[in-house]
Amino acid sequence: MSLGNGDQGTRIDFVLWIHSTPWWLLAECKRVNPAYGEWLFLKARYIRRDPTYTDRYIVEYTDEAPGPMGDLHFHARGKQIAEIHSGFYHIGIEVKTNDAGDSRGGSLDGIEKAASQVFRGVNGMVNYLKGHRSVLGTSRQRILVPVIFTTARLYAGTVNFAEVDLPTGELDRSKLQLEEVPYLYYQYHLSPGLQHQVYSGGVPFSELSFLLQAEAIRTVAIVNAEGINRSDEVM
Fold first, then answer.
1. Backbone angles phi, psi at 162, to 5 degrees
2. Residues 198, 56, 141, CA angle at the centre, nearest 5°?
C-alpha cells in the first residue's frame, strides 16, 4: 500500500484489520543481511525521574470529534493502549555474525531503517485518514498499531551504562545479561521529520517527559519467525 507522508512517499507492506473494531495493524517486513542477522535490544535502567514509572504501550490514535463550534475536527495523538509490564526495550543494535553477507539484505542500520519506514507508513496513514474520513468507520476512530516482522534473531537484555569505558565507549560483553526472544516491544522516538502535522487536540501536560510520551514516543512490536507462530501472545 503506497501513501504520501509530507514530501516523502512511503509504503505499508500490509494492513490487518480486527474486524468490527477500530484496530489496524500496519506491518513492515524486513529481511536482514545474514552478516548482520542478530538484533540486540537493551533496556535502559533509568527512564524517568519517577522511580515508579513503567513503560507504556503507546500507538497513534486517530478520531473525529466535535470542536468548540460544533464542527468536526480530525485528531491524531499518542495513546496508551495496554498494560504490559515487561518486554519493553529502548536501544537497538545490529550485531555482526559469522554468516556470509549478501547484497539483498540490510546493513548495520537495519533497525533504524525498519523503524523509520514503519512509522512513515503510520504517519502516511494518518494523513490519508484525515483526507478520507469515511474510512474511520462508524466508530469515527482508528488505532494504528505498527509491527516489524523480521528474519533477524532477537536478543534482549539490560545494561548498566555506568560500566561503559568512557575513553573507548566499549562495554565488557560478560556484563550483558541477554536472552533470545521471539518478539519484543521497542520504544522508538520519532524525529521531527517522522512526525505528522495533524492537530493533536492539545496535550494537557507541562512536564517534558509527558510531552515526549504524547508527541514523540511510540511503541513498535518486533517479531521474528518464531514469534509469528506465537502471535496470540504478542498483542
1. -70, -20
2. 40
Which residues, 6 or more positions from 132, have their beta carbon under 8 angstroms from its beta carbon?
A: none
d(CA 188, CA 120): 13
Task: Please state the length of the chain.
Answer: 235
- The residues that bridge with 73 in the sheet, in sequence order, are 65
Cell 540486540 identifies what position? 40
Which of 82-91, 95-104, 118-127, 175-184 shows the lowest per-residue confidence on average (mean pLDDT)? Answer: 95-104
pTM: 0.84
d(CA 84, CA 235): 9
CA–CA separation, 41 and 88 (whole Å): 9
**Each residue's pLDDT tens digit, 189-200:** 998 888 887 866
Alpha helices in the chain (DSSP H): 110-131, 208-215, 225-228, 231-234
Distance CA 25, CA 17 (A): 6
**DSSP per-residue string spanning 35-69:** GG-EEEEEEES---S-TT----EEEEEEEEEE-TT
215 with 191: CB under 8 angstroms? no
Phi, psi for 100 (deg, rounded to 5): -70, 140
